[in-house]
Specification:
There is one protein chain. This protein is mainly β and 181 residues long. It has one domain (2-180): Sandwich (Jelly Rolls). 4% of the residues lie in helices and 50% in strands. It contains 1 helix and 12 strands; from the N terminus they run E-E-E-E-H-E-E-E-E-E-E-E-E. It has one helix spanning 64-70; strands spanning 2-5, 17-22, 24-31, 49-55, 76-84, 89-98, 101-110, 115-123, 126-133, 141-147, 155-160, 174-180. The strands form 2 sheets. The protein has a 6-stranded antiparallel sheet, with no helix packed on it. A 6-stranded antiparallel sheet has the order 2-11-4-5-6-7, covered by helices on one side. The longest helix has 7 residues, at 64-70. It is globular and about 40 Å long. The termini are close together.
Length: 181
Amino acid sequence: MNYLIKTGKHHSKRFPVLLLWKSKLHYSIRFDSSAIYNSREVENQHDINKLVGFSDGFSWGRRLIYQSTSKGWRNSARIGWNWNPLNHCVDLWAYAYTSGKLQVKHLGEIAIGEEFQIVLQKAGDFYQFFLFKTGINPEGFELVELKRSTRGGRIFGFKQYPYFGGNETAPHNINISVKKL
């Protein structure tokens, strides 16, 4: 599926999907040249955009969807990305909130047009982020683990979709190819 984040927007047009009892998310992804951008403010170039992921649990009540998608900063795991103009590549990040505290670790670099696979899963007290390079020069895989605070090995929350920003919105249309495996 192709996700489009339009100029001046943060979100691709996708509605939240409830994930019940999944053990992992697995995707094949490709960025095209629309992932190349320069932030309006230089200091925002390092802001991490979100690619895919999940909220980890949620609070019951009338604000269920809002709390779990728009403000899913309590417990969540996502693959983050940003354009690295110095290395001319897309940097990928393991990006998680655990009890409201942000954790971020570099996961790898991807060339424009390179197909890759990611797996996000729960493993005991950790979120695991796998990067498999499947393009011209496969290099095995990278693994990053970030601490999590919730219990259980199944995902019970909402799937998270591509999001551009921190502070800034998309400077132009950004297309991302994401295929569920």
